[in-house]
Each structure stands twice: as structure tokens, then as C-alpha cells.
């Protein structure tokens, strides 16, 4: 898959890891979320819990459908597998590792 990574895993002042990832036009947002979280967590995508236990994958993909310009002004944030996930119109997927104990 020809995903585009921006600011691949790095540490910030709080010791958190951050990965910003742009999505391909034909790539579902849910695939990008799982890919980004697995990269930051350092585990295989299959080791993550099912995304549907956290958020409705069809609804998330629908909001950011490549054929819809409405997704350009939308921002969705949720916790998944001990990570904070922010999906912004563009579409851009931003994953921030949630520190242990939060």
C-alpha cells in the first residue's frame, strides 16, 4: 500500500511518541488508523484489539469518504489501544501514544 508518512515516530517534550500519517485517496481511514497505531505501538496490526470495539469503522470511513468534501472540516478524536487517535479532514491521521497510567 502506498501510504505516505509524515513525521514518522518521534519523541516530544513529554516523552510521547507521535506519528502523523497522510492517507491515500483510495485507502479507508480505518486501515490508516490501524496501521498508524501498530507502527507507534511497535506491534503487528493483528495484535491490536478490533477497532469496532472502540468506534464504528463504517461510520468513521463514511465521514472521511474520498468522494465527500464534508470530511475536510471534520475532526474525530478517540482512544484506541492505549493511544489517542485524531483523524482530521484532508484526510490526515494523527496518532499520539498515551503515556502509561492515564
From TrEMBL:
It comes from the Archaea. InterPro entries: HalOD1. This is Halobacterial output domain-containing protein. Residues 25-96 form the Halobacterial output domain. It holds the Pfam family HalOD1. Residues 1-21 are annotated as: Disordered.
Amino acid at each position: 500500500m502506498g501510504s505516505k508518512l509524515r513525521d514518522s515516530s518521534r519523541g516530544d517534550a513529554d516523552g510521547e511518541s507521535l506519528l502523523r500519517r497522510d492517507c491515500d485517496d483510495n485507502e479507508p481511514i480505518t486501515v490508516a488508523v490501524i496501521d498508524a497505531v501498530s507502527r507507534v505501538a511497535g506491534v503487528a496490526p493483528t495484535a491490536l484489539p478490533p477497532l469496532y470495539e472502540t468506534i464504528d469503522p463504517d461510520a468513521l470511513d463514511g465521514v472521511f469518504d474520498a468522494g465527500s468534501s464534508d470530511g475536510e472540516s471534520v475532526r474525530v478524536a478517540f482512544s484506541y489501544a492505549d493511544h489517542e487517535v485524531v483523524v482530521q479532514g484532508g484526510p490526515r491521521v494523527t496518532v499520539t501514544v498515551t503515556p502509561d497510567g492515564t
